[in-house]
Fold this protein.
Amino acid sequence: MSSQDQLAPPRTQRGGGGSSTAHPALILTVLASASFLSQLDVWITNVGLPDIGRGVGATSLSDLSWVLNGYAIVYAALLVPAGRLADRYGRKAGFLLGMAVFMAASLGAGLSGDVWTLVVFRAVQAVGAALLTPASLGLVLTSAPAEKVEQYVKIWFTAGSLSGVCGPIFGGLLVQLSWRWLFLVNIPVGLLAIVLAARLVANVRHDQDTRMPDLLGGVLLIVVVGALALGVVKAPDWGWSDTRVVSSLVVAGVGVLVFLLRSARHPVPVVDLSLFRNRIFAAANLAGTLQLASFAGLLLSTILWLQNHWHYSAIKTGCATLPGPVGFALAAALGETLQRRFRVPAGVVAAAGSAVAAVGALLFVLLLHNDPSYVSGILPCWLVFGVGAGLALPTAVSSATVGLHPDQAATGSAIVTTAIQIGSVVGISILVAMLGTASGGAPLETYRHAWSVAMGLMAAAAVVSLGVSQRRAVTVR
C-alpha cells in the first residue's frame, strides 16, 4: 500500500439500525459510560474481596486474587483481536454483542457458588468487555465533530480511568446489599446502554481488510500473562523453588518469545510490533503499564490494610478512598487545561503527574501506622496519589491514541488498554507475593515494602512519560 493510500480516508459502511443525526455528545455519553462499566469490573471487586471470599467459601488471598486477575488477563489478551474484528466487521455490532455477553456473564458471576465458577464467569465477562471497549472508542472517533475528536477521545479515556478510583466506593455501597450485586448491577446498566446504542449509534465498518486477526496469538498472550501471575502469586504458598512455580515462570518466558515471533510474522497480529517503533506510542504504553501496576497494588493494599488492620467495614473502606476519585477528576480536567490553553507538552504533564503520585505512595510509607488515624494518614496519601494519577494516566494513554488513523483506532487503543491491564495484573501479583501467606494480615513493615514498590513504579513512569508528546488527531468525516 502506498503512503497516499495509507493516508486516504478509509471506506466505511453505515446503516443497520443506527442514526447518524443523533447529537454527538449524547452518543459520547452512552459510549463513555459503557467504557466506564467494562473497566469498572476490573476494580469494583477490590473492596468486596473479603465478602466474596466468605460468600464462596474461599479464604486464600492467592485464590481470591484470580477474581481480579482472571478478568484483567482475558480482557487484556482479547482487546486487540476484538478491536481488529470491530474495525473490519462492524463496530456497532461488536459493541452490542460485547455488552450482551458481558451482561449474561455478570448474571452467572452473581449466581456463582464457589470461587472457581466465579473466576470462569469473570473470564467470560472479560470476553464481552474486550468486544465492547475498542468498538466503543472506534464509534466515538467516527461520531465526534472533526474539531472535537481529541477532546472526545480524552473524555472517553478519562471515563474508563475513573473506574479505577470509583470502584471502591461503588463496591462498598453494593456489598451492603450482597457481594452478588457487584456483578448483578451490570445488567440494568447494560440493558440501558444496548437500547440507547441501538437507537442512536450509526454502524461503521472498515472493509479494507477482511482477514481474521491472530486469535491464537490472543490465546498465547493469555497463557503468558496467566503463567506469570500464577508463578508470582502462588510462590509464597508453594515456595519459589517449587517445580510448579519454576515451570510457570518458564512457560511465561518461552511464551513471550513465541508470541513475539508469531506477532512479527503473522499478517494480522494481535500486537502490531511496528507501532512500537514510534517513540511516542512505545513510551505511552510503558508509562501506562507502570502507572497501573503502581495503582493496582496500592489500591488493593490500602483496602486490605483498612479492613484487616483498622477493621473498617466495606462501606467505610469505600468512603475512605473517596478523595481519590475527586482528586483524579479534578486533576484530569487540569491536565486538559494545561495542554489546551497553556500548551504544556503532554509528556511534561504525564511526568509531573507520575511524580506527584510517587510522592503520594511515599506518604503511605511515612504516615500510616497501626493506630487508626484517617485525617493524618489515608486522607493526604490517597488525595495526593489521586491527583497525580489524574494528571498522568489520561494524558499518557490518550497521547498514544489520538493520532491514530481511523482504521487503526480500535486496534491501537486496544494495545494501550492491553498494556495497562497487564500492568494491573503485575501490580496485584507482586502485592500478593509480598504479603505472602499472611495475606491481608501481614505486618506494617511488609505493607511499607509494598507501598515502596508502588512509589518506585510511579517514579519510573515519570521518567518514561517524558517521551510522550501529543500528536495531531487524524480525523475522517
User: Anything to note?
Assistant: The first strand starts at residue 12 and ends at 13. Residues 214-269 form one domain.
